[in-house]
Design a protein that fits this description.
By secondary structure, this protein is an alpha/beta fold. It is 18% helix and 31% strand.
Length: 280
């Protein structure tokens, strides 16, 4: 509620006005008497403590962990992080900002407590043997063009993989030996964001995304080996029930039981089992 001077009062107005009235009666010639003899003094102290606690909670709720890369490229070195300084315990998001050194995940057991963003003009690399688990969504291209997320290790996203979410570029490259799994995927193609899967790379999402995934394959937002001639996306609905498993395959090696959408010729080959799960 408004106070004199335009300030806002956090709490109930009645106790404050009551205390103000008593405070005025505790003055003599404009000078305050010993307020500690007035019970309202303690109410004011308690109220002030409550306001401070509320402000502290508000600041903590917005506390992000952001990459600075001051010492080296190691994600697991907490000295490289600003803000809360620990992605695993940040009250807000984890944000990969441009830093002194690029951000690289090379060890296992790395986590975030919430969403993870790749900011403008910066990327993220997960090396073979590196492991990152994101508790929320993983977002690229939110505020401007992001550099690629390159995965040769393991990335697990409990929420959405959101590529080019703000309409900007923000690619994800899954290289040989790399695995990325998310609960769902969304690609905003307005800025040119793509998911590219190389030989022996794997992307997994829930089977409910099948229609959207097919659309993005058809419109070159999901590609195999950078759309190299003869390569296609193999979409397996059987190896992990309830999920779609995407890999890159050379078309000459296809079996008749695979569902494949070739990015260049838009050729579909649908096996007997897949016909029962999807209608073109």
């Amino acid at each position: 509620m408004p106070r004199r001077g335009g300030d806002k009062f956090l709490g109930q107005t009645t106790p404050f006005l009551f205390c103000s009235a008593i405070t005025k009666r505790q003055t003599t010639n404009g000078k305050l008497k010993n307020m500690k003899t007035n019970p309202c003094y303690y109410k004011l102290i308690a109220l002030g403590s409550t306001v401070i606690a509320l402000l502290t909670m508000a600041v903590s709720a917005r506390a992000d962990a952001y990459w600075g890369g001051v010492f080296d490229s190691n994600w697991a070195n907490l000295g490289n992080w600003g803000g809360t300084g620990d992605p695993a315990n940040a009250a807000g998001a984890t944000i990969i900002n441009p830093g002194n050194n690029p951000c690289v995940v090379s060890t296992t057991g790395n986590t975030t407590s919430g969403d993870c963003y790749i900011s403008i003009g910066v990327g993220l690399t997960i090396l073979n043997g590196g492991q990152l688990t994101v508790a929320g969504n993983f977002i690229t291209g939110q505020w401007g063009n992001s550099l690629p997320l390159d995965v040769s290790g393991q990335l697990t996203i409990n929420g959405y993989l959101l590529l080019g979410n703000g309409g900007f570029d923000g690619d994800v490259n899954i290289f040989s030996g790399g695995t990325v799994q998310s609960a769902h995927i969304s690609i905003n193609t307005g800025g040119g964001a793509q998911l590219n899967i190389s030989t022996n790379g794997t992307y997994t999402t829930q089977i409910g995304d099948l229609g959207n995934v097919n659309y993005w394959i058809a419109h070159n937002a999901i590609t195999a080996n950078g759309n190299a001639p003869g390569w296609a996306i193999n979409l397996d609905t059987n190896i992990n029930p309830g999920y779609l498993v995407l890999t890159a395959v050379y078309t000459a090696s296809l079996s008749s039981t695979n569902f494949v959408f070739n990015n260049r010729s838009e050729e579909r080959r649908v096996g007997k089992e897949c016909r029962s799960r999807w209608s073109p």
